[in-house]
Design goal:
The protein starts with a strand and ends in an 11-residue tail after the last helix. 37% of the residues are buried. The radius of gyration is 15 Å and the shape is globular. It has a six-stranded mixed β-sheet with strand order 5-4-1-2-3-6, sandwiched between helices. Helix 4 runs antiparallel to helix 5. A hairpin with a 7-residue loop joins strand 1 and strand 2 (18-26). By secondary structure, it is an alpha/beta fold. It contains five helices and six strands.
Length: 165
């Protein structure tokens, strides 16, 4: 089971300003099990990244998944969870929530991926700016994210700076 998380900020009209938190849960074969996009309004970059990670773990736990690999593009967040650096003091509560949720799983790992490799979650984040509050897709991704999913499942890798949008 794989969870990929992303948070994206959009500065547009008053209706679309703010952060969108996204995650996609995929089976070991890459099939999407659930994808989400939540508009949360304005907050800090780090708050958005940590909230996304916490929400993804809560979603996996609710669905009964027991063995997961979490991928995210925030080095600070992943290092803080893995214990290779201290999390910012003002986010200690959220980091504590993530660690507590982590104990719910038989096996869990946290891995940093470059933003460019986060195609599916980033495409969901871009789409999330068009929804009013939140969207959940079960067993698929929306058509706007389908190309990103195909590209990701081919798994040939790509050089940094690659974009499919």
């Amino acid at each position: 089971m794989n969870i990929t998380v992303a948070a994206a900020y959009h500065l547009g009209s008053l209706a679309t300003i703010g952060w969108v938190l996204t995650f996609i849960l995929r089976s070991d074969s890459g099939k999407p099990l659930v994808a989400t996009a939540f508009n949360i309004g304005t907050t800090s970059v780090l708050d958005a990244k940590v909230l996304t990670l916490r929400n993804s773990l809560a979603g996996a736990k609710e669905r009964g998944y027991t063995k997961i690999e979490v991928e995210g593009d925030s080095k600070l967040v992943i290092d803080g969870i893995n214990g290779t650096s201290d999390p910012p003091w003002r986010l200690l509560r959220l980091f504590h929530d993530i660690r507590k949720l982590s104990y719910s799983f038989e096996a869990i790992s946290f891995k940093r991926v470059f933003r460019e490799a986060n195609f599916v979650a980033n495409s969901l984040a871009n789409l999330g700016h068009k929804v009013e509050s939140h969207s959940i897709w079960e067993d698929n991704v929306p058509p706007e994210a389908a190309l990103a999913l195909v590209f990701n499942n081919v798994n040939f890798g790509c050089p940094r700076g690659t974009s499919i949008l």
